[in-house]
Write a structure and sequence with these properties.
- The chain has a seven-stranded mixed sheet, sandwiched between helices. The protein has a five-stranded mixed sheet with strand order 11-10-12-14-13, with helices on both faces.
- The chain is an alpha+beta fold.
- The protein contains eight helices and 14 strands.
- It folds into two domains: 139 residues, Fructose-1,6-Bisphosphatase, subunit A, domain 1 (Fructose-1,6-Bisphosphatase, Chain A, domain 1); 115 residues, D-Maltodextrin-Binding Protein, domain 2 (3-Layer(aba) Sandwich), CATH 3.40.190.80.
- The chain starts with a helix and ends in an 11-residue tail after the last helix.
Length: 271
């Protein structure tokens, strides 16, 4: 039996509202060894949710972004019956700068597959949720397969140029196949905004397990399509960063992957 989704949502929303919103735009930032930003809010949310999740569902392990790499690998290898995978603050740079585009991302991984995903945006009080095989929701309203009736040249693309190979980044910059492009700084929300039809196509060159575990499940359960730049399934229960190509609309997905040169026979729709 999976944990009750509403109870998981209550635990995450309570932690985010208590630990993130009072610190928004006022948190002092530090830099980790890889150059990414961390604040006291990241560690406070992780500590609070680790305690709450273990109190409510002690049968599952816990992996958080703010753990050391060695501890993350150990916990993933010892996942057992299941493992919570948490990004306590996805979009830390935005959060510290006062840009209201950040989220908490939580997935439950069982048998090396995501079975529950939740991404909470406290600024908008929007909570995206998904259960494998049962659907995806935004604040309780179903997110379903949609036909957007757009060509790629009319689409809004969410593209993170920073992590793309230079030849592909230059090609996109010099001759973009879409109408316009955004890069807003929270991978988990990127996935969910594609699922909600706010972004039409998506491309990211390098994201980690806690970045995509919940959001990719939301998009899959909303009926969207996704693969890596190599044509593989995006989700993989390991610590190696993955690229991501996605769209909610089937026609846009096919046009987007063809433009990127991904063989159609290798495209995948579900993690």
């Amino acid at each position: 039996m999976l944990p009750e989704l509403e109870r998981v949502q209550d635990v995450v929303v309570e932690a985010a509202d208590a630990e993130l919103l009072p610190r928004f735009a006022e948190a002092e930032r530090e830099f980790k060894a890889d150059g990414s930003v961390v604040t006291a809010a990241d560690t406070a949310v992780q500590a609070r949710l680790c305690k709450a999740l273990q109190a409510n569902w002690p049968e599952y392990g816990f992996l958080g972004e703010e753990m050391s790499a060695s501890e993350q690998r150990t916990r993933l290898a010892a996942a057992g019956t299941g493992l919570w995978c948490l990004d306590p603050l996805d979009g830390t740079s935005n959060f510290a700068a006062g840009l209201p585009f950040f989220s908490v991302s939580l997935a439950l991984i069982v048998d090396r597959e995501p079975v529950l995903g939740l991404v909470y945006d406290p600024s908008r009080r929007e909570c995206f949720t998904a259960l494998r095989g049962r659907g995806a929701w935004l604040n309780g309203a179903p997110l379903g397969r949609r036909t957007l009736d757009l060509a790629l040249g009319q689409a809004i693309a969410a593209v993170d140029f920073k992590r793309l190979a230079p030849p592909l980044a230059r090609r996109l910059a010099e001759a973009p196949p879409y109408s316009s492009q955004r890069s807003l700084g929270s991978v988990a929300l990127d996935w969910c905004w594609v699922a909600a039809g706010r972004f039409h196509v998506y491309l990211h060159g390098k994201q980690k397990l806690w970045d995509y575990a919940a959001g990719s499940l939301v998009l899959a359960e909303a009926g969207g399509r996704q693969c890596t730049l190599e044509g593989e399934s995006v989700f993989r229960a390991d610590m190696v960063p993955r690229s991501a190509v996605a769209a909610l609309d089937e026609g846009l997905y096919q046009e987007w992957t063809r433009w990127l040169g991904i063989p159609e026979k290798e495209n995948t729709s579900r993690e």
